[in-house]
Amino acid sequence: MRPLDPVRQLLDLYPRIFFACHTRHVRDPKTRKVLSAHQASILDHLDDLEPTSLMDLARHMGVTPSTMSISIDRLHRRGYVLRSRDPRDARRVQLRLSPAGVRIKDAQSVLEPARVRGLLAQLSSEERAAGLAGLALLARAARRYMESGPPKKMGLRPWRRRKGSR
Questions:
Q1: 86-97: per-residue pLDDT in tens?
Q2: Position 128 in a domain
Q3: How far is CA 158 from the centre of its chain?
Q4: What's the confidence (pLDDT) of residue 130?
């Protein structure tokens, strides 16, 4: 029996954990308003201190800047995102979480704590320690990978203008 390719193993195992533990909906704990999964995902990619440019966020999430701008406008109107101009380049829009956006981000997670607790309860203490150690290794590798920049070909096409459009 041939051992599984590590990439194939990760592609097989990660969705099992995600589907067992992912949050089903996101609700503002103060206003009780529901946010779409897409809106919550955008908030997850922002910080209250370190600004992110609209262009970088759009590129990272695989959408056009105009599509991201529409989503950011909605989140801004609801009070979850702050917009400002880059002091070094006024053409660039910088995004940060507002206090309400931080509240949403802190109150929700991609994974639902009760479901994660239930998943971890299925393991012995030794299995749990080994699993968490493995995840910590993958998280460190993910951080190094993101710091080194994405590979040239990731399968996502950066936005570009269509012929004849301005």
A1: 889 888 889 999
A2: no
A3: 18
A4: 95
Assess contact for 69 and 54: CB atoms under 8 A.
yes
Whole-structure pTM value: 0.57
Check whether 5 has a pLDDT greater than 60. Answer: yes
- Report d(CA 50, CA 101) in Å as an integer: 14
- 39-96 per-position pLDDT tens digit: 988 998 999 998 999 999 999 999 999 999 999 999 999 999 999 998 898 888 899 9
**58 domain-assigned:** yes
Q: Domain span at residue 86? A: 24-110
Q: Is residue 125 part of a domain?
A: no
38 within some domain = yes
Cα–Cα dist 112/23, whole Å: 5
Shortest CA distance to 83 belongs to which of 67, 71, 96, 64?
96
pLDDT of residue 2: 63
The residues facing 22 across adjacent strands are 111
Looking at the structure of the chain, the number of domains it has is 1
Q: Is the dihedral of CA 13, 131, 141, 47 positive or negative?
A: positive
Strand order from edge to edge, sheet including 93-97: 52-53, 93-97, 81-85
- In Å, the largest CA–CA distance within the chain is 62
Q: What's the CA gap between 14 and 12, in Å, rounded?
A: 6
